[in-house]
Amino acid sequence: MTSAQRVFVLTGAGVSAESGLGTFQDRGGIWSRFDPMALATPEAFARDPALVHEFYNLRRSGVVAATPNAAHEALARLESRLQERGATLFLCTQNVDDLHERAGSRAVTHMHGEILKARCLACEAVTPWRDDLSVATPCPACGRASGMRPDIVWFGEMPKHLEAIDAALREADLFVAIGTSGAVYPAAGYVAQARALGIRTCELNLEPSDNAAHFDEARYGPASVVVPEFIA
Ligand code: BV8
């Protein structure tokens, strides 16, 4: 860790698990209780927007009640420490919560969007979420009352910030995946891309992920333990 100059960190739901936010593919995870194709696709929203809003309002209340854990705090410290020595951290998260930011991370790339933001169905403008937005209130940007959706990337939709992610991945000298099962693409393909580029790879996870074979190094255990140890 110590000598890396351009660190790329990819986080997944496991980094927020100890903050009480559900993971997805785990036993008892969100997708074992809810059908993602019935709730996390544009077709699902077109079919039943009220149901999808209810699903995200429920999860959003969990995010607001949650607090960052030692893994989020360690990554915020890592960002500062790297910057102090002229190095960089590119923190890419699959998570839609704001726990990295609330722990102090200043640059977070949310490739799957953010549950605390809303997107106008008419003009695509993104604004902070308010619960009354789940009814057709006028968009603060365009004024049209076409309705709002959560600013989330659903299955089948293009993830956000792909160019910035690709550029950061190409110039990294260390790739670290934290709390992700390696089940959802394109994020799940990043470690193989890193390996092909000759970048050192490390997995910090509760247990070996679907991508475990691609990592040069791995430390298994709860993120609140293994992440602070790794960056120490
Ligand atoms: C795309 C927002 C094209 C929603 C999410 C058929 C139709 C359409 C698409 C596809 C298809 N078949 C395949 C695809 C591609 C699809 C995909 O990958 N599907 C999978 C199911 C095969 N991908 C997409 O649709 C993506 N878009 O492909 O567009 C494209 C792509 C590239 C370039 C151009 C065009 C969009 C995917 C985004 C979907 N949205 N989230 C919401 O949140 O409600 S995905 C959602 O599930 C999460 O965001 C997250 O990304 C994913 C789950 O992943 P993880 O974060 O890894 O979480 P998981 O529970 O799986 O794992 C947790 C890990 O933590 C575990 O390993 C566990 O052991 C560990 N852990 C648990 N506790 C701890 C811990 N670790 C440490 N400490 C602990 N305490």
Radius of gyration of CA atoms, rounded to a whole number: 18 Å
Our count of helices gives 9
Order of helices and strands: EHHHHHEHEEEEHEHEEH
Beta-strand proportion: 15-25%
Biggest sheet, spatial arrangement of strands = 3-2-1-7-8-9
Uncertain residue segments: none
- Global morphology: globular
Helix and strand composition category:
alpha/beta
Q: In angstroms, what separates the terminal alpha carbons?
A: 9 Å
Helix content: 25-40%
Characterize the largest beta sheet: strand count, sense, and whether it forms a barrel: 6 strands, parallel
GO molecular function, one term: zinc ion binding
Binding site for substrate: 56, 59
Binding site for Zn(2+): 120, 123, 139, 142
EC number: 2.3.1.286
Q: What is this entry, summarized?
A:
This protein is an alpha/beta fold and 232 residues long.
Please specify the SSE layout and strand pairing:
Layout lengths: L5 E6 L18 H4 L2 H4 L2 H6 L1 H17 L4 H15 L3 E6 L5 H5 L4 E3 L2 E8 L5 E3 L19 E5 L9 H10 L2 E5 L11 H7 L3 E6 L11 E4 L2 H9 L1
Parallel strand pairs: 1-2, 1-7, 2-3, 7-8, 8-9
Antiparallel strand pairs: 4-5, 4-6
Helix pairs in contact: 5-9
The structure holds ligand BV8.
The site of ligand BV8 has 37 residues, from loops.
Structure notes:
The chain is α/β, with parallel strands linked by helices. Helix 5 packs parallel to helix 9. The mean pLDDT is 94. It contains nine helices and nine strands. The structure holds ligand BV8. The site of ligand BV8 has 37 residues, from loops. It is found in: Cytoplasm. GO terms for molecular function: histone deacetylase activity, NAD-dependent; NAD+ binding; protein-malonyllysine demalonylase activity; protein-succinyllysine desuccinylase activity; zinc ion binding. It catalyses: N(6)-acetyl-L-lysyl-[protein] + NAD(+) + H2O = 2''-O-acetyl-ADP-D-ribose + nicotinamide + L-lysyl-[protein]; N(6)-succinyl-L-lysyl-[protein] + NAD(+) + H2O = 2''-O-succinyl-ADP-D-ribose + nicotinamide + L-lysyl-[protein].
